[in-house]
Amino acid sequence: MVRLGGNQYGKAEIRVVRVARGAAAGGGDVIRDWSVSTSLSGDLADSHLTGDNANVLPTDSQKNRVYALAREMGAVAPEAFALELGSFFVSSQPPITRARVSIEEYGWQPVGGTGYSFARTGDLIRTTTVVRDADLGVSVVSGIKDLVLMNTTASEFWGYPKDPYTTLPETTDRILATAVNASWRFRPSMVAPPGRPADWDGLFAAARTAITETFAQAYSYSLQQMLYALGSAVIKAVPEVCEVRLALPNKHHFIVDLAPFGLENERAVYHADDRPYGLIEGTVLADDAPAAGIAWT
Amino acid sequence: MVRLGGNQYGKAEIRVVRVARGAAAGGGDVIRDWSVSTSLSGDLADSHLTGDNANVLPTDSQKNRVYALAREMGAVAPEAFALELGSFFVSSQPPITRARVSIEEYGWQPVGGTGYSFARTGDLIRTTTVVRDADLGVSVVSGIKDLVLMNTTASEFWGYPKDPYTTLPETTDRILATAVNASWRFRPSMVAPPGRPADWDGLFAAARTAITETFAQAYSYSLQQMLYALGSAVIKAVPEVCEVRLALPNKHHFIVDLAPFGLENERAVYHADDRPYGLIEGTVLADDAPAAGIAWT
Amino acid sequence: MVRLGGNQYGKAEIRVVRVARGAAAGGGDVIRDWSVSTSLSGDLADSHLTGDNANVLPTDSQKNRVYALAREMGAVAPEAFALELGSFFVSSQPPITRARVSIEEYGWQPVGGTGYSFARTGDLIRTTTVVRDADLGVSVVSGIKDLVLMNTTASEFWGYPKDPYTTLPETTDRILATAVNASWRFRPSMVAPPGRPADWDGLFAAARTAITETFAQAYSYSLQQMLYALGSAVIKAVPEVCEVRLALPNKHHFIVDLAPFGLENERAVYHADDRPYGLIEGTVLADDAPAAGIAWT
Amino acid sequence: MVRLGGNQYGKAEIRVVRVARGAAAGGGDVIRDWSVSTSLSGDLADSHLTGDNANVLPTDSQKNRVYALAREMGAVAPEAFALELGSFFVSSQPPITRARVSIEEYGWQPVGGTGYSFARTGDLIRTTTVVRDADLGVSVVSGIKDLVLMNTTASEFWGYPKDPYTTLPETTDRILATAVNASWRFRPSMVAPPGRPADWDGLFAAARTAITETFAQAYSYSLQQMLYALGSAVIKAVPEVCEVRLALPNKHHFIVDLAPFGLENERAVYHADDRPYGLIEGTVLADDAPAAGIAWT
């Protein structure tokens, strides 16, 4: 009467910190501070139906492989790590036909000039998700989480339809603030570049800069318009990217009515509201973007 | 060079509390405590490309409609509310061709016998997501979040493959604990039942009971097996459901090694670990489940 | 030029779960699910000033003692455990003259009738803090965290001063909701009762019931008045308690103005706001309460 | 039988954002992004005992005053704002004899060169708490929250006592990581300096730099030693400070045992653990520090 559908399993949020001693340009340490999550799928029906675990590599073993691989690879870019880890599971476990590896990277900046001292940056989280399928190949989607940006002006919102529940006044000057959550899909050619390893860190830096600079430079009539501008900028700055998906909460800053207290409030005092908030989600693609395939699965 | 792909926008986490005075069986109040999120899609390209907002009903208006509809409908089930709200947006805004409405419901139980006094239950969150598409119809997916269950025994885990990174010892007795995150899709016939409104609250209660009872009764050789048992039980208990999707974190309780202190620890003292954790995801379907269509979009 | 002042150190948030097999009345298991935090003080200046750790029992050893003691004592009340643990550190480590042990207890209720299956309750956190001083004796402060209560009526707020910044309208009917955070100090005689162990679980249940019932029964003109009623009720219900400290956030539920939409909203639809919130803090004491001494340090 | 003890009330977490247009050195905007909490005490017994609110200035009015004062004062330092706000409540409300104002400040850095574009920094939270008492004067305590620092070496831990529960191996090289939570009390002369307003921003920057630099430069035999070094450094760098209180979680980074996989792990791969964690708390005072008085109440 019932049957098993799609399924996957793995270890979530493996908190591995890799220190590469003396590997920085100036002789200091390099740190990679990650939360790694693995997810495997394949011939796993028996475990669900009968409790036969013959095909279920323990999530504990997956965790161990993460630590060991960090030892072997050094403080590499998360994309390089996830590519290697995904291949490992699919190639070493015959019943496993697909591996999904997601990494969150937390930033640290050197302090004090010692080479071994760091402060956590906290301004954003770098992300990557690699999906490796035994038949369909591999995809890399990288991104940013929780990069909070604000323009104190250069944002308008008007010309919208007014239904019987519309009380919002139109505005030609408002604060526009958001937490950028973006992920960008690399072209297949990028994933397996001929002849040399990809400069994943450089590509991330370029995408990040494009987002921040575009947010600052764009004059906005809606957060949707900003979303499209940000996505376009990433593709333009990083031609290796063919698709960008964004989710932008509208972090409302409401002007406070100070008239009851005899004060004007011309663009000066705002209330930063928590909930509810607008949420704008959208996709920007290169005209020649190949189909997404397994990328966002 | 670039183009706009899929997109949607709306208001997230509208915290509406509806009190229906004297509506309870014994004459007390009924409370519905919700976080409502809306998301609309349709002909929204202009807003992204040019900042022309002629088709963009403000998220503030969406919020206002939520409050007004709560006034009109009373303390109804979240499914009934979401169905009505989704239809409203699609039918009243021609450019909008699809509306997605998600609701989290927080539970309260009467205390003190006053009829107006309540304590928040905190044991789980009830959820529903309705997608209404102008062309493709409507779907209802309801569920549970964060129902934390534990069996202190009746769980084994062995017979798994041992790769070079496997150090986990097999066990024939362990604690099995998880936070049930489940969502179940109703059959299309359920969404528009002939002649009478659906008893959404009763269906939720039946699904919830099936999950809790099955978790307690099932002897488990893996969390995957438990997942399949839980999904099957919901479909059996609620024939109006045709598909169940579950995500079950393995909330690891590790037995503590007390041998260094001269103490045996036979199934007595455990460490409840935070991270990493196993994460088991899977789907159970009725054999005759129709295609999911827009349900999980 | 500078000197060391007060200091303490310990291990925070030790997540120990103690299962007492078959210990329940009906033959089922009893669970104690705790987060234990220890904090020691005494002759610790050297560690701060020179890095000489001769007096610094590692926090890791403190953690180990928690697990071992849980093995030894069984699924006892948190107060009994904390009393024993505090005594252990002070009596076994000569440089340590004071130990502070805090425990949060998370509730589980049996489900399914198996005796080994449980669901986490989630409605509140039970707390206790024991301070054991080598010279000054011992104190026990227990309490509740995050018990969320609501009266949908029977609450007024008016008669307050109006300064130039007051715009709040007076009301004779509002929702009153709070998250009860309360801690109650036991009389010294309670801590070392002659002849028999204290029924800590029974005392907790009595205090909890007093809070919930009083919240329901009290008619309130301010949250301050409710605070005093709650504190008084605990002391009345549990004469072993001589002082109660409460912190009550005013979880604002604002009536939504639906007039713009042609709808009256007579006590029906509310917005549950996040921030800012009122915060009312206060103490209620028995007339004959002895000085608090080390209790709240 | 019971009586009212100490009490206070106010509005917590008022999320005010003040934009001073063109006020930056280069002509750009200055932002102050705050969470302000007020707490008043005085002759408030009636509200608790009878519900007579004649002395209870609504927390809503307190909130309004925050917004209005932000308009009046501009994007000033949080210390200056809190001093003014505290004085306002005590001077304008006769029953109120003490006001406590706490502010958390979130950092933003200019991006894009527009003068109105900013990115949230996220590396730490700046704090201040001002207590104004009608009789006892005023105190200012400022600080830092959640500044996460790490040394990948230059940290040892050994020479500690070994009790029967000690299994921790001694180490002469470990990662030392913490989240600095520090608050420093200013000397009374600082609070009301003769003739000119204090440079609160400059003092904060000096304290912050002292903490980061000292953390990097100090060789540590215990986190206690680091705590004392950090506190001393603040007092040395900012002579206006007479007392520093610190709470330093030991963010454990455990070396992973890779021997089962045939790999050595010489200071390379670590597991960043969540809980439990060591927690080191302590105070450092200038030799001539006056009594704390109302500062930490």
How would you portray this structure in words?
The structure is a homotetramer. With about 300 residues, chain A is α+β, with helices and mostly antiparallel strands. Chain A contains 6 helices and 11 strands. Chain A has an 8-stranded antiparallel beta sheet with strand order 2-3-4-5-6-7-8-11. In chain A, α5 (about 200-215) packs antiparallel against α6 (about 225-235). The model of chain A has no long low-confidence stretch (mean pLDDT about 95). Chains in contact: A-B, A-C, A-D, B-C, B-D, C-D. At the B-C interface, β2, α2, β5, β6 and α5 of B face β2, α2, β5, β6 and α5 of C.
Short overview:
The structure is a homotetramer of 297-residue chains. Chain A contains 6 helices and 11 strands.
Number of strands of chain A: 11
Largest sheet of chain A: 8 strands, antiparallel
What strand order characterises the main sheet of chain A?
2-3-4-5-6-7-8-11
- Shape descriptor of chain A: globular
- Helix coverage percent of chain A: 10-25%
Give the number of helices of chain A.
6
Instruction: Please tell me how large the radius of gyration of chain A is.
Output: 23 Å
Mean pLDDT of chain A: 97
Low-confidence stretches of chain A: none
Strand composition percent of chain A: 35-45%
Largest interface: A-B, 82 and 82 residues
Oligomer: homotetramer
First-residue to last-residue Cα separation of chain A: 27 Å
What is the string of SSEs of chain A from the N terminus onward?
EEEHHHEEEEHHHEEEE
What is the structural class of chain A?
Answer: alpha+beta
